[in-house]
Amino acid sequence: MAHASVLVPDRKFVEALVSSGGGDLKKCFQCATCSVVCELSPDRRPFPRKEMLWAQWGLRDRLVADPDVWLCHQCNDCSVRCPRGARPGDVLAAVRQQAIRHYAAPKLLSTWVNDIRLLPLMFLLTAGLIGLALLTRGPIEQAIGISEHHGLYAGFFPHWLLNTFFPFFTGLAFLVAVIGIVRFWRAMHAADLQAGAYTPTYGVVTSVMRTLKAVLLHDRFGKCTAQASRRWTHLTAFYGFLALFVVTIWAVIDIYVNPALGIASLYPFDLTHPMKILANVGGVLLIFGCTKAILDRRRRGADASTSTSFDWVFVWLLLGVGITGFVTQILRFVLEPVAEGANVTAAYAVYFVHLVLVFQLLVYLPYSKFAHIVYRTVAMVYAEHTGRSNGIRQLPSGAGPALKSEPSAPAAIEAEAAVR
Predict the structure, then answer these.
(1) Which of 95, 144, 289, 381 could disulfide-link to 236, CB 3.0 to 4.6 Å?
(2) How many angstroms separate the Cα of 252 from the Cα of each of 30, 162, 246?
(3) What is the pTM of this model?
(4) Secondary structure (DSSP) of 29-40
(5) CA diameter of the chain
(6) Residue 386: C-alpha distances to residues 290, 307, 313, 405 (Å)
(7) pLDDT score at 298
(8) 342 vs 328: CA distance, rounded Å
(9) How far apart are CA 33 and CA 3, in angstroms?
(10) 260 confidence band (pLDDT: 50, 70, 90)
């Protein structure tokens, strides 16, 4: 039995998609080529055809509650084969950017972080916060009786300040991200319930484990053909960042937990320490992955993704963190043995820049492209939980794309575009 639905198009949302890199969405005429050729699209309710229609109609609420938007990895197989040049991969990337803004709080901060014109102001704000922390350092140390610091940079930004300042602001960012995740999960669940499409298949824990395997292997990228090399680009950057994250956690444990257990702290680590080796390997991987991503994005081939400031700011920021991290390490080993008589101003300046970049990367995560790591993971977990991922085709090597259960164009407009 047919149900009447009231559609409420959001013209501003369409304009936002166009300004975010989805300017070709109006070229789509619903031929379904994109859904047929996409190796990641499931047979049941495939994407990105329906998302292209919703985007044209400005159905914001439908799109921001759609997990399929995040199952797309923008490999651009669909864009390359689109007969109209509508570039669905870029449109879905624009939708993801708007979804991040939708779930972030406060929304004003999300606007600031993603406005390239306000980027200098955001860096200035971060530098001011770090500078304020440094100004309060002396009075606090006098009040609690801290007088000794070990390590070159501890004399500038001591460990106690580093491990209170950054966890505080990172904790706020984590709270914002958790709130966004909860809202996103509830929106996906409510949309599926309204459509009668909620089909729980796996428990949440099992879904998380299956998703974790997919993330660690980046196997979804392996299904892409137009930009197959992006898998290794993402893998190197991902594991580089993961290695640096592990080293950071271990450093905190070594500074605070180990002495409480009667184990001597070895921080700051020397070059032969396993954690320092892991950090250097991670730094190399991060810089390589970011550099390759930048070079790939500078290509202007038909299979290249459209790059916006939303993309560029993140990848350059990640690269900056890796490079300044290496420079601070080099200056440490050069100047630390002679720190008593050496001018360490340059080392402190580089370290200050490094701290600013790290703050920008971590604390503004819920508002930047870095939020992909959160929302894509949650969408993948939800897809596993509801059996969406089970429909992804497993084709033999070299096999052509199989046809999916796509309705005709009139049926798609009537059935898929209706509000859940």
Answers:
(1) 289
(2) 54, 10, 10
(3) 0.87
(4) ----HHHHH-TT
(5) 85
(6) 34, 32, 34, 18
(7) 82
(8) 15
(9) 28
(10) confident
Determine the Cα–Cα distance for residues 95 and 370; give it in Å rounded to an integer.
Answer: 15
Distance CA 310, CA 116 (A): 8
Please give the tally of structural domains in the chain: 1
At 261-302, the pLDDT tens digits run: 888 888 888 899 999 999 999 999 999 999 999 988 887 666
Is 87:306 a contact under the CB 8 Å cutoff? Answer: yes
Residues facing 42 on adjacent strands: 392
**Domain range for residue 287?**
107-379
- State both tokens at 346: 């340059």
Cα separations in angstroms, 117 against 107, 111, 127, 313, 369: 17, 11, 17, 12, 17
The pair phi, psi for residue 183, each rounded to 5°, is -65, -40
State both tokens at 109: 């901060």
Q: For residues 176 and 105, is the Cβ–Cβ distance under 8 A?
A: yes
Contact partners, residue 12, CB within 8 Å, separation at least 6 = none
Instruction: Out of 186-190, 231-235, 413-417, give the one with best mean pLDDT.
Output: 186-190
With 0-12 / 13-18 / 19 or more C-beta atoms within 10 angstroms meaning exposed / middle / buried, residue 351 is buried
